[in-house]
Amino acid sequence: MEATLAKSFVKGANLRRWLNRKDCPELVRALKTLFNKSFKSAQQQLLGQDEPQASEQLNSYDYAHYTYNGVNYSRAQTHLGNSLVKFYPSPSSAEVVVGSIQRIDVQQGHPIFYLQRQEPLPPHKYDPFRRYPWFFAKMYSSKMSSGPLDIVPASSISSHVARYNCSGDRAVILTLSRVDNIIILGDCLLTSFAGLMQQ
Amino acid sequence: MPRSPSGNVHFSPRVVRADTIKCIQEVIRTLTRPGWINHVPHNYCDANAGTIKADEWRTLSTIYLPIALVLLWGEVNQEAPVEGSHFLKVLDHTMALFQATDLLCRYTMTLARATAFRSLLKQWVDGLHEVHPHTKAHQNRTNVHVAFHLYDFLILFGPVISWWCFPFERLIGTIQKVNTNNHIGGMIQLLSYFYLL
Question: pTM value?
Fold first, then answer.
C-alpha cells in the first residue's frame, strides 16, 4: 500500500515538473486545462476568490485586508501582525523602511497602502543585534512616527516583519522575508525560488 | 552529571536558568507576527509542552530564541557588554548555530551564503568544547559531520526547500491519518482517499 501511495506521489511530482518545463507536450497542457476545469485547486481557493474584484462603478474601496501575490496584508486595526511590513517609500528609493499599514485602498483595481513608519533607534542607544550580520534583526524605537502617512502601491512592499517591544522604549524588528537581503556576486546565484514562494 | 573517561565530573556554570526560560516564553507570547508564521508551544520548556517537532525547532531557532537570548545576554543595562564575558561567549557561540540555521533555510542560495553557513557551523563546532566543557565527555555524533556536507548539497541542488523532507513528512502524516481498522490491504478505498486530498 505504501509503495503505491509513494508511487502516485512521485508520479504527481513528475507531472508537475513536466508542466513547468518549456518543452512540455501540448497534450499534457491540454489535459491540465481540462483538469483545472473539473477540479478546483487549493491554490485557487487561496488566491483567486479572496482577491477582491475591482468594480467599475466606484473609484475607491477601503479594505480590512488584501491578498497580494499570495500574502495577506491587513490594516493595523484588523490584525497588527499582518500589518507590519518593510517597504520602499518611493519607487526610486533603494532603502527600505519599516511601517504599519493603517489603511488599504483599492483604486481601480490597484491596491494602495497607507503606512505609518516606525521611528528609528536614537543614535545614542545600543543595538545588540548589530553583532550578528546574518541574523536580520535590528533595533528600532518602539514609537511610531507622527509624520504624514506614506502612500505606496502594493508592489513597493518588501516583506512582513515581526516586532517585539522590549525595555527602554525599543523594539526589535526581524525581517521575515526568506528570499531578500540577497548578495549577488556575479554568477553566484544558484537558484531563485522568489517567484514560486510567497516570502 | 557527565563524566569523562577518566571518571572526573565536569562542573560547568549553569547557563540557562528559570528566568531565561521565562524570557523565552515571554517573547513567544508577545511577539507581534504575521499569521503565516507557524505556532510554537507558548509554554516551551514546560513538561506539558510536548515534543518540539522539526518545523517548530526551525521557527524557534530562526525567530524566537535569537531575539530572547540576544536581549538577555547581548547587553547589560542596554549598553554593550564587556568583551570576553562568559555570557557573551555563550551567546556568540549559540548565535553562530542560529545564523547558520537561518541561512540554510532561506529560499534563495548564493555561494556567499553557502560559505557563510559552513564557516558559522565550524565556529559552532569548534567552540563547543570550550564554551560547554561538559560536551567533552559526550561521544562524537555523525550528525555534526553530515551537517557539513549540507554545504556541498547547497551548491549541487540549490536552496534546501527544493530537497528537504518536509513534503515526505506531510505524506507520512497523511498516510498515518488514513483509517485502516488494522486491516492490511484495502488499497482501492485508500487510494481514492489519497486522490481526493
Answer: 0.76
